Amino acid sequence: MSDIQLVDAPAGVEGAGFFATSLDKAIGIARSNSLWPLPFATSCCGIEFMATMASHYDLSRFGAERLSFSPRQADLLMVMGTISKKMAPVLRQVYLQMAEPRWVIAVGACASSGGIFDTYSVLQGIDEVIPVDVYVPGCPPRPEAIIDGFMNIQELVKTETLRRRSEPKYQALLAKYGIQ
Amino acid sequence: MAKIPNEQLIKAIADKFDTQVTVVGEPYELLTVETGREQIIDLLTFLKTDAELKFAFLTDITAIHYPEQEKQIGVIYHLHSLTTNTRIRIKVFLTDGDVHIPSATVLWDGANWMERETYDFFGVIFDGHPDLRRILNVDDMTAFPMRKEFPLEDPNRVDKKDFYFGR
Questions:
Q1: Is there a domain that residue A130 lies in?
Q2: Which of B68, B94, B90, B75 lies closest to B148 in space, CA to CA?
Q3: Spacing of C-alpha A117 from chain mean position
Q4: CA atoms within 13 Å, Cβ hemisphere of B51
Q5: From first to last of its 180 residues, what are the pLDDT tens digits of chain A?
Q6: 0.90 surpassed by complex ipTM
Q7: Nearest C-alpha of chain B: how many angstroms from A2?
C-alpha cells in the first residue's frame, strides 16, 4: 500500500455521484495550492530562501512552483532581508502593483523588526509601510521555518472569504497604510 | 619614483603658503596638515599641479565631528600621488553655525559624489557644488546622522520602550 496521505475534502454535502461544497472553500483550496510567490530578497534570508527553493527542501511541493519576479499575477510577497529606508518606497510600490488577492510574509528578524540594525538607515520592520500576514522568526530562519510560514499563509488563504478585499476589516487595515 | 620625504613636502608647502598651512603631525608617517577654507582650493591646486609633487589622485573627502571643540566640523581631504606613491592628509575645521567650504569639483570631477556624501552625513555645505543634495540617505531626512548629536538608535522604534518590559 502506498503511504501517501490525501488531504480531506472540505465540509460539504455528499451523496451518490455528487459532492457539493461552497464556492469559498473550493476557491480557497485552489488558491492555497497554487500560490505564486514574489521573492523580494535583499540579504542572508534570501540565501536561505534559495535553499528552500532548491531540491532538498523544495518549496514547489506546495504548489509554489512558479516564482514570479514581477508583481504581475503574483499572490504572495515574500520579503527576505534588511530593508533600508531608501528601499521602503520601492517595496511599497511592488506591493501596490500586485493585484488582489495578495498576501505578505516577512522572513527573518530584519524584515520583521529591523533586526540588529537599529539605525537611522534601516526600516524597523516592513509593517511600517505595508501590511504583513505572517512573520517568520530567525536570523536567518532555517528553510523549515520559511516552509512553516508558507504553510501558515496557505491556511489563511484556505479559510479566508472569497473577497477579503471587500471586508471592512481589511479595508480599514489598508486605509491605515494609506492604500486606497 | 621614490616616495617624497615628509620634510621635503613640508618645505614645498611652507615655501608657497608660509603660515597659512600648519603641520598637525605625521601619524604612521602620513603627513597631516591643517589650513583654512580661504586657502584650501589654492593648496589643493598647488598639490595637484606642482611638477614635483603631482598629487593627482583625490582619494577621499570626508568629515569629522568633535562636539567639544570650538570649531566642531572638520573636513578631511586625502590625496595620493600616483607617480611617487606619496600620500597626504589635509584638514579644514569649521564652526558649527557656518559650515561653508568651497567645492573641490573645480579640480576633480570625482569630488562630486564625495562632497554629496559629506553633505549628506555631516551637513557641510560645499559652495559651488553643481548638485549638492543627499546621496545615500532618504531625501526627506532632516538631520545629519554622522554628527555626534544624532541619536544612535532609531527614534521611531517602539518595541524597546520601557513599558513593554514592566519598567
A1: yes
A2: B68
A3: 24
A4: 0
A5: 678 877 777 888 888 999 898 888 888 888 988 899 999 999 999 999 999 999 999 988 888 878 889 998 899 999 999 999 999 999 999 999 998 889 999 999 999 988 888 888 899 899 999 999 999 999 999 999 999 999 999 999 988 888 887 888 888 999 988 887
A6: no
A7: 50
d(C-alpha A98, C-alpha B95), whole Å: 50
| Residue type at position A27 | I
- How far is it, in rounded angstroms, from Cα A79 to Cα A130? 11
Question: What is the spatial distance between Cα A140 and Cα A47, in angstroms, rounded to a whole number?
Answer: 9
Q: Does a structural domain hold residue A57? A: yes
Q: Any chain A CB within 8 A of the CB of B142?
A: no
Q: Give a yes or no: residue A13 inside a domain.
A: no
Domain limits for position A44: 35-177
- Which CATH number applies to B6-149? 3.30.460.80
The beta-carbon neighbor of A121 closest among B137, B156, B157 is B137
Judged by CB atoms closer than 8 Å, whether chains meet at A122 and B154 is answered as yes
Laid out side by side, the sheet with A76-80 consists of A37-41, A76-80, A103-107, A134-136
Of B136, B152, B156, the CB nearest to A124: B156
- Are A85 and B137 an interchain contact pair (Cβ–Cβ within 8 Å)? yes
Asked if residue A62 belongs to a domain, the reply is yes
Annotated domain spans of chain B = 6-149
Best A120, A121, A124 residue to mutate vs chain B (most B CBs within 10 Å)? A120
Alpha-carbon gap, residue A137 to A115, rounded angstroms: 10
**What does the alpha-carbon distance between residue B65 and residue B46 come to, in Å, rounded to a whole number?**
27
Q: Which residue of chain B has the CA closest to A125?
A: B157
Partners of B86 in the β-ladder: B81
Q: Which residues of A touch B138 (CB under 8 A)?
A: 85-86
The count of structural domains within chain A is 1
Q: What is the CATH number of the domain that holds A164?
A: 3.40.50.12280
